[in-house]
Amino acid sequence: MKSYLALFSIAIVLVSGCTNTSEKTGTSIDTPMAASNSTSAQSPTAPAKDTSRPGDELMKAMAVSMDQMHSVQMSGDFDVDFANMMIAHHQGANDMAQVELSQGKDEKMKAKAQEIITMQKDEQQKLKDFVTSYKPSGMKHGEGELQQSALKMMQKMKSMQMTGDVDKDFATMMSSHHQDGISMSKMELKNGMSDKLKQMTQKSITNPEKDIKEFGSWLANH
Q1: DSSP code of 144?
Q2: How far is the C-alpha of 208 from the C-alpha of 19, rounded, in Å?
Q3: CA-based diameter of the chain, in Å?
Q4: What angle do CA 152, 158, 164 make, to 5 degrees?
Q5: Contact partners, residue 98, CB within 8 Å, separation at least 6
Q6: DSSP assignment, residue 137?
Q7: What is the phi/psi pair of residue 6, to 5°?
Q8: What is the pTM of this model?
Q9: What is the 3-state secondary structure (H, E, C) of 68-133?
Q10: Tens of pLDDT, residue by residue, the chain (222 residues)
């Protein structure tokens, strides 16, 4: 009897072992599929294609400049407001010139870009020094003219057609940018109260006018 019970116990153990092995095998079959699904779900998506076009950075630089001009807190003193807006306007020229230096191919345009950066930074510093030291007159002149001018600049910028050629787009956009600066400068000459700033402004008109002629001549030959 004991021998029979021992054999019966061994048989039960063997059956249990087979059952456990079958269950484990079933689990191991499901696991690779789950891992596969997990891997599929976590697989990285393909990187987005770069849809930017040559010259887009020029438009972005111009847009940033326009935003900065619109963000200028108007004090009511035309001289101060003009100086602050022109500082932002010059920054747009600097940023566009930097794009030309990094992406342009024409050596003449790149040389002109470097020249503009040097000149605009110098004028920016002079305007900053003026704002810091100037004592407002307390008289208001030409209210709203600067804001209207900035709005017209933005509308004109949005309508500009880009060719995709960085050198040509730089020459075209900088000509337009200079012309806008000249228009603002003439407002200062008409409405400003500071003789010092008006003298600075008169000098700042001459160089942009020269640049516009050079850009026009270059574009006519390209």
Answers
A1: T
A2: 91
A3: 126
A4: 135
A5: 61, 113, 117
A6: -
A7: -65, -45
A8: 0.72
A9: HHHCCCCCCCHHHHHHHHHHHHHHHHHHHHHHHHHHCCCHHHHHHHHHHHHHHHHHHHHHHHHHHH
A10: 444 434 444 444 444 444 444 444 443 333 233 333 444 444 455 555 545 666 688 888 888 888 888 888 888 899 999 999 999 999 999 999 999 999 999 999 999 999 999 999 999 999 999 999 998 877 666 668 888 888 888 888 778 888 889 999 999 999 999 999 999 999 999 999 999 999 999 888 998 999 999 999 999 999
CA distances from 192 to 52, 74, 131 (A): 42, 14, 13
**Angstrom distance (rounded) from CA 192 to CA 141:** 7
Instruction: Tell the residue number behind the tokens 């200028």, with chain if given.
Output: 72
Q: The tokens of 209 are what?
A: 């006018």
The tokens of 99 are what? 């794009």
What is the sign, positive or negative, of the torsion defined by CA atoms of 177, 183, 186, 190? negative
